Amino acid sequence: MSKSPSTSATSWLLVVTTLPTDDPVPRMRVMRTFEALGAAIMRDGVFLLPETPANRQAVERLVEYISMNAGSAQAVKATPLDEAQLAAFRKLFDRSARYEDLTKTVESLRVGFGLADPSAISRVLHKQRREFDAIALLDFFPTPAREKAKDALADAEAEVRQLLFPTQTASGAKTKEKFLGRTWATRRPLWADRLACSWLIRRFVDPEATMAWLDKAQDTPPGAVGFAFDGARFANSGTRITFEEMLSQLDMEGNEALVKVGGIARFLEVRSGTRVPEAAGVQTLLQGALRRSGSDDELLREAEKTFDLLYEAYCEPARK
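The structure corresponding to this sequence follows.
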């Protein structure tokens, strides 16, 4: 794990804005963007962020946007006057309380282990995993609370996997190969099967997975698990797409909801199998994700939302 930036070396971006009061739309967009960046509000119209290349680029775009919408904005590089002010700045970005709340939620789920439906527990855990990722994305100065939450999640996910798939051991179901904490690699472009496989990996197989997106001629990174391309560890075979092969090899075929997700992925990928009504909607959502995403990581995050909802719909009993 990389070390936090040195306190003495930390510099800051201070953004002073003035927005028109007659049109609330630009004001709301600016406020939501600063919130999404994890900025601290110093006072009305004044925001603070640690200086990173990504934050600097985002702030430059925001300043430009504000200027184009009849407002004004100035971004300056700020240096704390002393260690006390530096500590005060950093405290504005302390995410410890959010991590602690998440840890309490995860640990409270243990009461239901062996009693409640493991699929329901798994869905709640996955929401907590997404919450952890969202917090960590804006955690500029990690504290021990982050590692505690990360460990609590990993332990709970491992136990729930055992409840969901009793025949699947932590060493990898029908194989002795270990699939936890690995790098998983597939080739571009990403579409239904590769996106569904990536979701399956992060959702059920290896929540701590590192995903690698390869160009056509690019070699698989050393030690990585390849999937959804010729010669990969998991690949198409016969009439089955890679997602279905993964279900088979990892002893997940007993999960009917995953099998249904696989049927949709197969239809969208190779136009074979039974077409279900949801296929058209899933295709539209994935196409929308492709258009709005600026990177493969962002595309996967958007696609995961679709597969999460699809899986929950298949798991939940029909409501009258």
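The longest helix spans residues 144-164.
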